[in-house]
Write a structure and sequence with these properties.
Blueprint lengths: L10 H19 L5 H38 L6
InterPro entries: DUF2164
Pfam families: DUF2164
Protein name: DUF2164 domain-containing protein
Length: about 80
């Protein structure tokens, strides 16, 4: 993603996500990840994976709105 449209998180949300990553690795892989490793993992997800999910959400929203707009034509009076 371009820097101006990069996903931005509040400090609290980022800390929550880092905690979730640490808990995931501990519970699912029995590995303890530190703050640095979890932060790097989160940054990778944000920079490399999140744009695909974001773009899918944009497309789904576009499709939904386009379908609803088409429905408006059904209320025309002839």
């Amino acid at each position: 993603m371009r820097d101006k449209s990069k996903i931005k998180l509040t400090k609290e949300k980022k800390e929550e996500m880092i905690s979730l990553i640490k808990n995931y690795f501990l519970n699912e892989r029995e590995e303890e990840l530190g703050d640095l490793a979890s932060n790097l993992m989160l940054n990778f997800i944000i920079e490399e994976l999140a744009p695909e999910f974001y773009n899918q959400g944009v497309y789904d929203s576009y499709k939904y709105m386009n379908d609803r707009t088409e429905d408006l034509l059904s209320i025309q009076i002839y």
